[in-house]
Amino acid sequence: MSMFDLSGKVAIVTGGSRGIGLGIANAFAGAGAAIVVAATNPEQSVAAVTQLQAGGARAAWVPTDVSDPDAVQAMVDQTVRLFGRIDILVNNAGINIRKRPEDLTPEEWHQVLAVNLDGPFLCSRAAYAVMKAGGGGKIINIGSLMSIFGNAKASAYGASKGGVVQLTKALAIAWAADGIQVNAILPGWIDTDLTQGARQQSPGLEEVVQTRTPEGRWGMPSDLGGPAVFLASAASDFVTGTTLIVDGGFAAD
Q1: Which domain holds residue 19?
Q2: Residue in 28, 61, 128, 157 annotated catalytic
Q3: Higher local confidence (pLDDT), 208 or 117
Q4: Within-domain flag for 104
Q5: pLDDT tens-digit readout, 116-171
Q6: Distance between CA atoms of 61 and 7, rounded to whole angstroms?
Q7: The CATH number of the domain where 166 resides is what?
Q8: Beta strand 10-14 with 34-39: parallel, antiparallel or unpaired?
Q9: Residue 200: pLDDT over 90
Q10: In angstroms, rounded to a whole number, what is the distance separating the alpha carbons of residues 93 and 115?
Q11: Which of 65, 92, 155, 240 lies in disulfide reach of 15, CB 3.0 to 4.6 Å?
Q12: CA distance 246 to 233
């Protein structure tokens, strides 16, 4: 349907070299968008761009540390030089340090928040002027079920992802008059490198998630593609400041 068509649009996906980010990038490419993979790992990023280009998409890697304001501004500037505009920003880059709060150092706390919460703010702030000048845009922040649930070994991660939800609301209100819609996706338990680490540290997690999730399985990165295309397209022009849970029913059980 034309309302979901992203032809002619340019999307930045932070952390787009793997996992959820790459799943979203693939969906955007399939809908016609040009993709900037903003990530730090050269090997993974080049592989992601090669995959996207093999499918017929215009794509490029722009090395980006989302916690560094100068690197973020360079990401925006390079995207405009390469593709002329920015229509969509997906703030997906994220990290976790799985420790109980009493074992988490202040440096580790700040490291997680710098990527997971400072990053979406810095990237959104940097992209704002370009989007406004282009007549509007779409910002999609990737939260987590830890935005609404607690976890003893995810205090910094949960705090950062809870902050993402509130940041989403604030940006949506601030920029609605500029034609920019800002929403968040809260993924459930998705099979990624990040959750592979969680499963190694938490024996039995695999079975617990499958049992608790009404759909009876872990999510895949591709499961985030459809919701992201909806929030990136004209189909969601009157949707802003909201959170969309994509978890196979986990939070509803």
Answers
A1: 2-247
A2: 157
A3: 117
A4: yes
A5: 999 999 999 999 999 999 999 999 999 999 999 999 989 999 999 999 999 999 99
A6: 19
A7: 3.40.50.720
A8: parallel
A9: no
A10: 7
A11: 92
A12: 18
Tell me what the pLDDT averaged over the chain comes to: 94
Tell me if 242 sits within 8 A of 41, measured CB to CB.
no
Is 157 among the residues known to form the active site? Answer: yes
Residue 221 lies in a domain: yes
Sheet strands side by side (includes 34-39): 59-63, 34-39, 10-14, 88-91, 137-142, 180-187, 243-246
Whose tokens are 């920003």? That residue is: 89
In this structure, is residue 252 part of a structural domain? Answer: no
Q: Which of 118, 193, 199 is nearest to 163 (CA)?
A: 118
Using an 8 Å Cβ cutoff, are 16 and 37 in contact? yes
- Confidence label for 199 from pLDDT (cuts 50, 70 and 90): low
Q: Does residue 45 sit within a domain?
A: yes
- CA distances from residue 219 to 107, 138, 148, 212, 248 in whole angstroms, order as listed: 32, 24, 18, 13, 7
Distance (Å, whole) CA 190 – CA 178: 34
From start to end of 17-77, where are the E strands? 34-39, 59-63
pLDDT score recorded for residue 250? 86
What are the structure tokens assigned to 243, written together? 């959170």
Q: CB of 199 within 8 A of CB of 2? A: no
For the chain, the domain total comes to: 1
